[in-house]
Amino acid sequence: MAHAMSDDQVAGELKKMTAFIRQEALEKAKEIQIKADEEFAIEKSKLVRQETSSIDSQYEKKFKQAGMSQQITRSTLANKTRLKVLSARQELLDDLFDKARGKLPEYTKDKGKYQELCKNLILEGLYALNEEKVEVRAMKEDYDVVKKAIEAAKDEYKKTMKGREVKVSLDEKNPQPEGCSGGVSIVGTGGKIDINNTLDERLKLLETDALPMVRTSLFGKNENRRFVD
Question: Which end of the chain is more exposed for a tag (fewer CB within 10 A), N or C?
Answer without folding.
Answer: N
